[in-house]
Amino acid sequence: MRNFLMSTAVLAMGLTAAGSAQAALKDEAEIRNGLLVVGMAYEISEKCGSIDARTVRGIQTLLNLKSRARELGYSNSEIDAYVDNKAEKKRLEGIARAQLVQLGVTPGVEETYCTVGRDQMAKNSGIGRLLH
């Protein structure tokens, strides 16, 4: 499931072709931040046994991000070319995990993921709306 969601997240992103005047999609804050929210919610759901991801809502969010990327002018081929970019996947995972630490997660300590998850749900944040 993790690989599916990460692949879907990457599918929702994309890089522009070499030589294009358009900025790389990975630099579009709206898209990047949306992917990070989905990634953080997923990480919480994986690390906290009492919190689950709203999988359908998460997939819909990713599809909406892909649609938004198209609206911004990125082609399907640009998005599809990015799917196999393992370095970008790792970069996003690192950012998401660092942001979770800023929210109070201690890596490897389940209860901290649960506390952050419950807090995000209570705040009805983007992360919280993807959890239950």
Protein described:
Helix content is 65%, strand content 0%. It has six helices and no strands. The chain is an all-alpha fold and 132 residues long. Helix 1 (2-12) packs parallel to helix 3 and helix 2 packs antiparallel against helix 3.
Helix content: 55-70%
Low-pLDDT runs? 12-21
Order of helices and strands: HHHHHH
The description of the largest β-sheet is: none
**What is the count of DSSP helices, taking H or I runs of 4+ residues?**
6
- Per the principal axes of the C-alpha atoms, what is the gross shape? globular
Radius of gyration: 15 Å
Query: pLDDT average, as an integer?
Result: 84
By secondary-structure content and strand pairing, the structural class works out as mainly alpha
Strand runs, count: 0
What is the strand content?
Answer: under 5%
Termini separation (Å)? 17 Å
Write a brief caption for the model:
This protein has 132 residues and is mainly alpha-helical.
Which properties best describe this structure?
mainly alpha, 132 residues
List the helices and strands and how they pair.
Elements: H1 2-12, H2 29-47, H3 55-71, H4 76-82, H5 86-103, H6 110-123
Helix pairs in contact: 1-2, 1-3, 2-3, 2-5, 2-6
